[in-house]
């Protein structure tokens, strides 16, 4: 049953038996933390550090409370509960999807063995690395989005931003739980480091490039939640297949939360495009910043940027590490169990593109060596879906222009294209040709400044900034003009405090 629908942002309905979450604990959980005093104490020691981090690097705009969803049970019914809560009192907790006692490793050389409930000694370092890299992205995005509420186009959008923020905070908890529970002292040290690295920090940056880019404005935020959170979905999808069962179950539940983040991106870009299309229709095909909307070519440039940095997150097309993770049973493929092959891939091959003599060519490579590319292909196909929807909005408005996904080699810093300059259409360019056109394809400082000028906060309930259309419905059945966020009394604009 799939109700985690990107398009309507509905609360996901998990399948299988229900496992209630114990909210009487300082750390809400469904992992019987109460029975493991040592672990409980260790996590309770980490909790104040997390809260400090949230205070210093979480959302900057002071708020009284926010209409947020919290997981109440991991199971078929009552997944989520919505209410107004002060953000710093949000009940971040540890929620694992329901376990299956008969689960087996479904791929690689351990295929058919019972899934591991403890970390296999030989894979300890690799598993910890995978968890740390995933964990590092979660607080990074909160840091990147820290100032956005100051320019929220509506209270509705502000609420969605905060929902994403608290859930990324919870995803950090999910990874820290694994580090504390299964990796001893080293795991605890890594958990500390997850709060010490910071997005964009010169000396101590986040691990992956896209998570050190500033999220400068709401268009970038929407592109981020569309493209970069979607990378997260695919990474979690491969970890959900892991032979290490606690990791698989953690990621399965995170995926359910992730659906809302992509809903924010899909519909955010959609509403931006709708407003631009409306003006284009009225003005004989033209829309400029002076019309109070974001011109379509600027939206395309933002798309090009966020897509290309998100593509880099998949790593090199060919990767020995990815192959090893697969054969060891640590990290599977997207929808591994639904694939119709032998799940070891030792004799399989595939095509991949590369650049030689100024041309893009293809060659045949062992499948096991190209699993990053396998995942990236799934991602690319998924990315196309949103673009089709956005183009539908343009078509509906009778506008001829269309948005498009650039060539996979465009503006890449990682993999076979990283030493080449490729146009969005897929031509290999020399440096001079690239430099002459770069500003047509990627946002310039001037473009970003013009977008920033449109980013005026609109805190009046039910009102929206000029550059973005109203959503068709509110959150959790509430009206669009609902008081989703109560700002701090001081300086709170009219209508925004209850
Ligand atoms: Fe996340
Ligand atoms: Fe996310």
UniProtKB/TrEMBL annotation:
Family annotation (InterPro entries): Aromatic_CoA_ox/epox, Benzoyl_CoA_Oase_BoxB, Ferritin-like_SF, PaaA_PaaC, RNR-like
EC category: oxidoreductase
GO cellular component entries: cytosol
Record's keyword terms, sorted: Oxidoreductase
Chain segments carrying region Disordered: 1-29
GO molecular function: oxidoreductase activity
Single GO biological process annotation from the record: phenylacetate catabolic process
Compositionally biased intervals (Polar residues): 16-29
Residues in the signal sequence: none
Name this polypeptide is given: Benzoyl-CoA 2,3-epoxidase subunit BoxB
């Amino acid at each position: 049953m799939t109700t985690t629908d990107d398009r309507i942002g509905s609360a996901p309905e998990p399948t299988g038996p229900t496992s209630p979450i114990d909210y009487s604990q300082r750390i809400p959980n469904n992992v019987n933390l109460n029975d493991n005093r040592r672990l409980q104490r260790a996590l309770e020691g980490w909790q104040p550090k997390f809260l400090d981090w949230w205070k210093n690097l979480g959302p900057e705009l002071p708020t009284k409370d926010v209409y947020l969803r919290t997981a109440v049970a991991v199971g078929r019914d009552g997944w989520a509960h919505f209410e107004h809560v002060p953000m710093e009192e949000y009940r971040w907790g540890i929620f694992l999807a329901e376990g299956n006692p008969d689960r087996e490793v479904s791929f690689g050389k351990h295929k058919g063995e019972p899934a591991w409930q403890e970390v296999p000694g030989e894979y300890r370092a690799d598993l910890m690395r995978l968890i740390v890299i995933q964990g590092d992205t979660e607080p990074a995005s909160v840091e990147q989005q820290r100032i956005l509420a100051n320019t929220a186009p509506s209270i509705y959008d502000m609420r969605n931003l905060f929902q994403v923020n608290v859930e990324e905070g919870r995803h950090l908890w999910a990874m820290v739980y694994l580090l504390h529970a299964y990796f001893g002292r080293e795991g605890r040290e890594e958990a500390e480091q997850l709060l010490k690295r910071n997005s964009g920090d010169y000396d101590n940056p986040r691990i992956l490039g896209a998570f050190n880019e500033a999220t400068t404005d709401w268009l970038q935020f929407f592109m981020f939640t569309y493209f970069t959170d979607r990378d997260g979905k695919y990474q979690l999808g491969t970890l959900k297949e892991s032979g290490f069962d606690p990791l698989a179950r953690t990621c399965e539940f995170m995926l359910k939360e992730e659906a809302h983040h992509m809903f924010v991106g899909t519909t955010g870009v959609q509403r931006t495009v709708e407003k631009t299309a409306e003006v284009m229709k009225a003005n004989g095909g033209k829309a400029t910043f002076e019309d109070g909307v974001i011109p379509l070519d600027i939206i395309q440039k933002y798309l090009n940027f966020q897509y290309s940095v998100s593509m880099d997150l998949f790593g090199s097309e060919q990767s020995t590490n990815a192959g090893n993770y697969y054969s060891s049973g640590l990290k599977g493929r997207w929808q591994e169990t639904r694939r119709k092959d032998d799940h070891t891939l030792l004799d399989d091959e595939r095509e991949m593109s590369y650049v030689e003599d100024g041309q893009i060519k293809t060659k045949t490579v062992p499948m096991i060596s190209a699993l990053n590319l396998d995942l990236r292909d799934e991602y690319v196909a998924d990315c196309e879906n949103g673009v089709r929807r956005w183009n539908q909005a343009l078509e509906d408005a009778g506008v001829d222009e269309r948005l498009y996904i650039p060539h996979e080699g465009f503006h890449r810093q990682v993999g076979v294209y990283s030493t080449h300059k490729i146009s969005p259409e897929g031509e290999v360019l020399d440096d001079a040709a690239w430099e002459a056109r770069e500003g047509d394809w990627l946002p310039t400082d001037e473009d970003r400044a013009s977008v920033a000028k449109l980013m005026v906060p609109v805190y009046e309930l039910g009102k929206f900034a000029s550059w973005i259309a109203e959503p068709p419905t509110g959150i959790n059945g509430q009206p669009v003009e609902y008081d989703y966020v109560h700002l701090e009394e001081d300086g709170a604009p009219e209508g925004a405090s209850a």
